[in-house]
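To the wet lab folks,

You asked to see what we're planning to order before we commit. Fair enough. Below is the target structure as tokens, and below that is the sequence we designed to fit it. If anything looks off to you, flag it before the synthesis order goes out.
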């Protein structure tokens, strides 16, 4: 009887995991204003469709995940609008099932697989233990569901200016978390003299997973979860923590509907995760000049702002620096990035962490990566691409850090 009950419980748990069998991701390119407006309308009333990227501009591709039961309706809609569509992913569940290696590598931690929050935290503990004079643990506080938001400070000497690395604010963007841990590891272990020099020239505050509830949820329950896990209105969970920062909050490119993927939260910093991160950054705001945030996907290197296209005071410097960084990124594998401010390069948006940092502290070097790929795998980038992705990303970060080192303090 007991065994039967156990089986029942196990199957209930397994059955509660979201699946995406035969969900397609369709790419649509609006070619005129009417099509663009219709897509925007559809995004506001998605009815089961999930927009992986947002309609914003004519000729700019939009990726939409379509459940199998919605395919006939979706096809009717695109036909009626004369929209051309392409099947970018034919079965999202297949990507999820093959995303990770069949056999977990034997090492405790590494970059040929994606790791759980507990495994990442255990690895952070091991760094503190193995580098006692260099690595110190940091806790931002506890998430909505009570998890510690963990990070570390890496400091080889006193008196350094600081760099912040932010990962995982969007739960499903696993490559962000893996890339941040990869860079952290290289700061401590690289035998490349350039990286060793940069590791020693700055202090680094590294937060691989600033939305731990969401990250855990993507591992246990729904691989495609993006938001936090706070309970909002209409029995919908979560807000987009990267629309929740108190800078031009909810002005543009964010939603006030609790069920939306880009719900900005009930008020600025309503999400404890965003609030705790902002509190910590405020407490060290006189110490850092570089803020690097990691997302996926699209292969973009972005700088402020998202709420309008007005150039920041060092726009030319950031554009040239971003372009040089993207060139360095392309060297290993030819991975092509587009560089620019958020508003013009991806889409208008507000309340994002990087813009808040720039707007409130006037931090001179703030960048956000939208990592691999350009849509073949989307958010479900195979673990076999982690090392190449992280290594090329590190190469681009090196360019930014070297420039910062040469140009700080700012006159
Ligand atoms: Zn993101």
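Sequence we intend to order:
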């Amino acid at each position: 009887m007991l065994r039967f009950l156990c089986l029942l419980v196990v199957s209930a748990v397994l059955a509660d995991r979201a699946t995406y069998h035969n969900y397609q991701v369709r790419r649509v390119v609006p070619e005129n204003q009417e099509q663009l407006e219709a897509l925007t309308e559809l995004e506001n009333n998605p009815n089961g469709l999930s927009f992986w990227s947002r309609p914003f501009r004519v000729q700019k591709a939009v990726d939409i995940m379509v459940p199998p039961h919605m395919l006939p309706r979706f096809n009717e809609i695109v036909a009626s609008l004369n929209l051309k569509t392409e099947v970018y992913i034919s079965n999202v569940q297949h990507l999820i099932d093959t995303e990770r290696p069949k056999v977990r590598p034997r090492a405790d931690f590494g970059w040929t697989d994606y790791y759980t929050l507990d495994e990442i935290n255990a690895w952070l503990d091991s760094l503190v233990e193995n580098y006692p004079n260099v690595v110190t643990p940091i806790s931002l506080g506890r998430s909505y569901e009570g998890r510690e938001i963990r990070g570390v400070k890496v400091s080889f000497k006193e008196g350094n200016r600081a760099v912040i690395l932010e990962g995982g604010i969007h739960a499903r963007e696993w490559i962000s978390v893996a890339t941040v841990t990869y860079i952290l590891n290289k700061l401590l272990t690289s035998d490349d003299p350039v990286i060793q020099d940069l590791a020693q020239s700055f202090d680094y505050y590294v937060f691989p997973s600033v939305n731990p509830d969401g990250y855990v949820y993507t591992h246990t329950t729904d691989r495609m979860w993006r938001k936090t896990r706070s309970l909002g209105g209409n029995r919908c969970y979560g807000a987009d923590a990267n629309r929740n920062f108190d800078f031009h909050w909810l002005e543009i490119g964010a939603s006030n509907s609790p069920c939306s993927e880009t719900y900005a939260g009930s008020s600025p910093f309503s999400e404890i995760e965003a609030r705790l991160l902002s509190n910590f950054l405020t407490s060290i705001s006189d110490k850092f000049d570089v803020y690097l945030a990691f997302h996926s996907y699209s292969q973009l290197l972005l700088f402020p702002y998202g709420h309008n296209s007005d150039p920041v005071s060092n726009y030319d410097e950031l554009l040239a620096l971003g372009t040089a960084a993207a060139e360095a990124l392309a060297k290993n594998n030819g991975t092509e990035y587009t560089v620019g401010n958020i508003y013009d390069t991806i889409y208008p948006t507000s309340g994002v962490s990087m813009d808040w940092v720039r707007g409130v502290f006037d931090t001179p070097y703030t960048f956000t990566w939208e990592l691999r790929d350009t849509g073949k795998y989307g958010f479900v980038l195979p673990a076999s691409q982690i090392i190449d992705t992280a290594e090329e990303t590190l190469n681009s970060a090196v360019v930014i850090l070297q420039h910062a080192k040469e140009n700080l303090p700012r006159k």
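Structural context that might help your review: The first strand starts at residue 24 and ends at 28. Residues 170, 173, 295 surround zinc ion (CB under 6 Å).

Thanks,
Computational group
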